[in-house]
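User: Mind C-alpha coordinate order:
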Amino acid sequence: MDNVGATIQAVSYLLSKGRCCIGLIVGPRTLAVSQDRIEGWRKAHQDHGVPADEALIAEGDYTSESGEAAMEKFLALGEPPDAVFATGFLMMTGCLGVLRARGVDVPDTVELMTWSDSPLLDVFDPPISTIQQPSYEMGVRAAELVLSRIEKPEAPPTSIILPAELRIRTPRAPVGGRVR
Protein backbone atom coordinates (compact mmCIF):
# COMPACT_ATOMS: atom_id res chain seq x y z
CA MET A 1 0.00 0.00 0.00
CA ASP A 2 1.33 3.43 -0.87
CA ASN A 3 0.69 4.85 2.60
CA VAL A 4 2.66 8.05 1.98
CA GLY A 5 0.89 8.80 -1.31
CA ALA A 6 -2.55 7.92 0.02
CA THR A 7 -2.10 10.18 3.04
CA ILE A 8 -0.91 12.99 0.79
CA GLN A 9 -4.13 12.54 -1.25
CA ALA A 10 -6.36 12.65 1.82
CA VAL A 11 -4.69 15.60 3.54
CA SER A 12 -4.32 17.52 0.26
CA TYR A 13 -8.04 17.10 -0.35
CA LEU A 14 -8.83 18.58 3.07
CA LEU A 15 -6.34 21.43 2.60
CA SER A 16 -7.78 22.21 -0.85
CA LYS A 17 -11.19 22.63 0.79
CA GLY A 18 -9.78 25.39 2.98
CA ARG A 19 -9.13 23.29 6.07
CA CYS A 20 -5.90 24.51 7.62
CA CYS A 21 -5.60 22.69 10.92
CA ILE A 22 -5.66 18.96 10.18
CA GLY A 23 -5.29 16.38 12.92
CA LEU A 24 -3.85 12.95 12.15
CA ILE A 25 -4.50 9.84 14.21
CA VAL A 26 -2.20 6.93 13.41
CA GLY A 27 -1.60 3.53 14.95
CA PRO A 28 1.48 2.89 17.08
CA ARG A 29 4.33 5.15 15.90
CA THR A 30 6.73 2.19 15.98
CA LEU A 31 4.97 0.70 12.94
CA ALA A 32 6.35 1.55 9.49
CA VAL A 33 2.80 2.17 8.25
CA SER A 34 2.30 4.88 10.90
CA GLN A 35 5.63 6.48 10.06
CA ASP A 36 4.68 6.52 6.36
CA ARG A 37 1.34 8.14 7.10
CA ILE A 38 2.99 10.82 9.25
CA GLU A 39 5.44 11.46 6.40
CA GLY A 40 2.49 11.85 3.97
CA TRP A 41 0.73 14.26 6.37
CA ARG A 42 3.87 16.41 6.62
CA LYS A 43 4.46 16.31 2.85
CA ALA A 44 0.88 17.39 2.05
CA HIS A 45 1.23 20.38 4.36
CA GLN A 46 4.57 21.26 2.77
CA ASP A 47 3.12 20.92 -0.75
CA HIS A 48 0.31 23.34 0.15
CA GLY A 49 2.52 25.79 2.02
CA VAL A 50 0.59 25.23 5.25
CA PRO A 51 2.57 24.85 8.50
CA ALA A 52 2.28 21.35 9.97
CA ASP A 53 1.61 21.50 13.71
CA GLU A 54 3.11 18.35 15.23
CA ALA A 55 0.72 18.70 18.20
CA LEU A 56 -1.97 17.58 15.73
CA ILE A 57 -0.51 14.08 15.46
CA ALA A 58 -1.93 11.53 17.88
CA GLU A 59 -1.09 7.88 18.37
CA GLY A 60 -3.90 5.39 18.75
CA ASP A 61 -4.31 1.64 18.79
CA TYR A 62 -7.10 1.26 16.23
CA THR A 63 -9.86 1.21 18.89
CA SER A 64 -12.70 3.68 19.29
CA GLU A 65 -11.36 4.51 22.76
CA SER A 66 -8.06 5.65 21.31
CA GLY A 67 -9.95 7.80 18.79
CA GLU A 68 -11.91 9.35 21.66
CA ALA A 69 -8.71 10.08 23.58
CA ALA A 70 -7.07 11.64 20.51
CA MET A 71 -10.10 13.83 19.81
CA GLU A 72 -10.21 14.99 23.44
CA LYS A 73 -6.49 15.86 23.17
CA PHE A 74 -7.12 17.82 19.97
CA LEU A 75 -10.10 19.72 21.40
CA ALA A 76 -8.01 20.76 24.42
CA LEU A 77 -5.49 22.55 22.18
CA GLY A 78 -5.54 26.33 21.89
CA GLU A 79 -6.40 25.93 18.21
CA PRO A 80 -8.18 22.61 17.71
CA PRO A 81 -8.26 21.03 14.26
CA ASP A 82 -10.91 21.83 11.68
CA ALA A 83 -10.41 18.36 10.14
CA VAL A 84 -9.17 15.00 11.41
CA PHE A 85 -7.85 12.11 9.36
CA ALA A 86 -8.14 9.00 11.54
CA THR A 87 -6.28 6.14 9.87
CA GLY A 88 -8.60 3.50 11.32
CA PHE A 89 -12.38 3.12 11.13
CA LEU A 90 -12.88 2.58 14.86
CA MET A 91 -10.61 5.49 15.75
CA MET A 92 -12.77 7.68 13.49
CA THR A 93 -15.95 6.50 15.24
CA GLY A 94 -14.40 7.45 18.58
CA CYS A 95 -13.71 10.95 17.21
CA LEU A 96 -17.25 11.23 15.90
CA GLY A 97 -18.69 10.19 19.26
CA VAL A 98 -16.72 12.87 21.12
CA LEU A 99 -17.68 15.56 18.61
CA ARG A 100 -21.37 14.62 18.79
CA ALA A 101 -21.31 14.53 22.61
CA ARG A 102 -19.84 18.03 22.65
CA GLY A 103 -22.28 19.37 20.07
CA VAL A 104 -19.56 20.06 17.48
CA ASP A 105 -20.97 20.19 13.96
CA VAL A 106 -19.56 17.53 11.64
CA PRO A 107 -18.50 18.32 8.92
CA ASP A 108 -18.94 22.11 9.08
CA THR A 109 -16.79 22.72 12.17
CA VAL A 110 -14.66 19.55 12.06
CA GLU A 111 -14.53 17.34 8.99
CA LEU A 112 -13.63 13.68 9.46
CA MET A 113 -11.93 11.29 7.08
CA THR A 114 -10.83 7.70 7.62
CA TRP A 115 -8.87 4.85 6.10
CA SER A 116 -10.36 1.66 4.63
CA ASP A 117 -13.65 2.09 2.92
CA SER A 118 -16.79 0.42 4.25
CA PRO A 119 -20.40 0.38 3.03
CA LEU A 120 -21.30 1.51 6.56
CA LEU A 121 -19.83 4.90 5.77
CA ASP A 122 -22.57 5.51 3.20
CA VAL A 123 -25.19 5.51 5.95
CA PHE A 124 -23.28 7.72 8.39
CA ASP A 125 -24.75 11.18 8.78
CA PRO A 126 -22.80 12.92 7.43
CA PRO A 127 -21.22 10.37 5.10
CA ILE A 128 -17.48 10.02 5.78
CA SER A 129 -14.87 10.21 3.00
CA THR A 130 -12.11 7.61 2.98
CA ILE A 131 -8.96 6.27 1.52
CA GLN A 132 -10.03 3.05 -0.15
CA GLN A 133 -7.28 0.48 -0.23
CA PRO A 134 -7.45 -2.36 -2.77
CA SER A 135 -7.91 -5.08 -0.14
CA TYR A 136 -8.83 -7.84 -2.58
CA GLU A 137 -5.90 -7.05 -4.86
CA MET A 138 -3.61 -6.89 -1.83
CA GLY A 139 -4.66 -10.43 -0.90
CA VAL A 140 -4.21 -11.73 -4.44
CA ARG A 141 -0.76 -10.15 -4.75
CA ALA A 142 0.31 -11.49 -1.35
CA ALA A 143 -0.77 -15.01 -2.32
CA GLU A 144 1.13 -14.71 -5.61
CA LEU A 145 4.27 -13.63 -3.77
CA VAL A 146 4.01 -16.55 -1.32
CA LEU A 147 3.54 -19.06 -4.16
CA SER A 148 6.46 -17.52 -6.06
CA ARG A 149 8.67 -17.77 -2.96
CA ILE A 150 7.70 -21.45 -2.50
CA GLU A 151 8.56 -22.18 -6.14
CA LYS A 152 11.85 -20.23 -6.06
CA PRO A 153 13.06 -19.87 -2.46
CA GLU A 154 16.43 -18.55 -3.63
CA ALA A 155 14.89 -15.64 -5.57
CA PRO A 156 15.41 -12.15 -4.13
CA PRO A 157 12.49 -10.65 -2.17
CA THR A 158 9.89 -8.78 -4.20
CA SER A 159 7.95 -5.71 -3.13
CA ILE A 160 4.73 -4.54 -4.69
CA ILE A 161 3.25 -1.18 -3.73
CA LEU A 162 -0.39 -0.73 -4.65
CA PRO A 163 -2.06 2.67 -5.02
CA ALA A 164 -5.03 3.75 -2.93
CA GLU A 165 -8.08 5.68 -4.03
CA LEU A 166 -9.61 8.73 -2.40
CA ARG A 167 -13.37 8.18 -2.05
CA ILE A 168 -15.24 11.43 -1.45
CA ARG A 169 -18.67 11.29 0.10
CA THR A 170 -20.79 14.41 0.26
CA PRO A 171 -23.76 15.10 2.53
CA ARG A 172 -27.06 14.21 0.99
CA ALA A 173 -29.80 16.77 0.52
CA PRO A 174 -32.77 16.20 2.85
CA VAL A 175 -35.63 14.36 1.24
CA GLY A 176 -39.10 15.89 1.57
CA GLY A 177 -42.04 14.01 3.02
CA ARG A 178 -42.50 11.91 6.10
CA VAL A 179 -41.37 8.43 6.85
CA ARG A 180 -44.26 6.20 7.86
Notes: The mean pLDDT is 92. The radius of gyration is 18 Å. The beta strands are 22-26, 57-59, 83-86, 111-115, 129-132, 165-167.
